[in-house]
Design goal:
Structural class: alpha/beta
Bound molecules: inosinic acid
Order of helices and strands: EEHEHEEEEHEEEE
CATH architecture: 3-Layer(aba) Sandwich
């Protein structure tokens, strides 16, 4: 895979589609096993998680529901961390087994701001599945229960993740080439 140029920056291949696919399948198998008989409710956070959530959900083999929501904005190559609003959550979470689906947990600010709102609704359980986790970037600790890949503290795009709106459509994940 060659390097790519998005806006003003060069990105280099980091995780190929095959490796991502295998990891997503493994996560789906684990979740299907852990939640058998519990009819979990998947809540993916848009926009970044739409591809991961779709691929994951396709491989879930048990009865499950999904409800996409939109929460926060992210500008440039650093997390703004600003939660704007939560829209689209039209299912009652009371007594439900909820799995939040995130593309990436960076500083943790987005989830740490949002989780109390969900806990308030008294779900039976609340866990987080994130494709990517940047442990070195953590500022607001959140427990990620299902992690795809722990990655270095570098900006990445592709497979749903963007850099200023572009790059979501790549099947692979690229990392910013520091120059
Ligand atoms: P956090 O609140 O800092 O954990 O950031 C969470 C959100 O920021 C993610 O859901 C992404 O939308 C965005 N984000 C964080 N790091 C990256 C990155 O490396 N590439 C693209 N988006 C990112």
């Amino acid at each position: 895979m060659p390097n790519i140029c998005i806006h003003d920056k060069i990105f280099t291949p980091f995780l190929n589609a095959h490796i991502i696919g295998e990891k997503v399948d493994a996560l789906a198998r684990q979740i299907s096993q852990d939640y058998a008989g519990k009819k979990p409710l998947f809540i993916p956070i848009l926009n970044g998680s739409f591809i991961f959530a779709a691929d994951l959900f396709k491989k879930i083999t048990i009865e499950a529901e999904i409800c996409f929501i939109k929460l926060a904005s992210y500008k440039g190559t650093r997390s703004s961390g600003q939660v704007i609003t939560a829209i689209g959550l039209d299912i009652d979470l009371f007594n439900r087994h909820v799995i939040i689906v995130e593309d990436i947990v960076d500083t943790g600010k987005t989830l740490s701001a949002f989780l109390p709102q969900l806990i308030h609704q008294q779900p039976a359980s609340l866990k987080i599945a994130a494709l990517l986790l940047k442990p070195a970037a953590t500022q607001f600790p959140v427990t990620v229960d299902y992690t795809g890949f722990s990655i270095p503290n570098k900006f990445v795009l592709g497979y749903g993740l963007d850099y200023n709106g572009l790059g979501r459509n790549f099947a692979e994940i690229y990392e910013l080439l520091e120059q």
